Amino acid sequence: MTRPKAEHKEHKEGTKGTKKGLVNGSVPMDASTIIRPGFLRVLCAFFVSFVFSFGVAAEWNVNTLFESLAKARPERATFTEKKFLSLLDAPVQSSGELLFTPPDRMEKRTLKPRPETVVVQGGEVTLERAGKRHTLQLRENPAIAVLVESIRSTLAGDLDAVTRAYSVALDGTPAKWRLTLRPLDPAASQLVERIEIGGGDARVAGVEIFQADGDRSVMSIAPAK
Asked: How far apart are CA 101 and CA 81, in angstroms?
């Protein structure tokens, strides 16, 4: 019976020594029980950033997106466009420059394959091609008006104008989002099935138009260099 008492005594002394080491600031044998201050700071920063990011994502919606679009500074951009037409075997490609000046002026200047300029201001559209100029009123051309207002109102951050003509669905994140617009007017929906506008933050990066007859156009937009 004497031996177990000795073992018990040694165990107590070992425990006491460990506690003393902790009190004196020495490193214990089991280092996993200590969280170093530097690691603790990193861990706290991670959780703070995670919670902040989650809060931003939770609050982000179509209203906040359009608010950011409305505050964005107008800038000149370049575009490349492909039109996929059922009558043609290959897409029709074009490229040029875009300029939006709030609140309602939008200019599309095609440079290739042939020069062409389209200016939309207010309710009027002006087309210049091959030295000739044509003007039309949007109120008299609802099909064109539907397309113009979808892009112009989005660039202007005018959600009220968009929702007057379209149902609006938003997917993605602030860094990479996509709006899907579907015409509310039955007559317009016979021409355009839907319009998808994609971007990141407060910048529109692409517009894809799906026509009711199956034709579609894809435009990629980038800041001018």
From this structure: 21
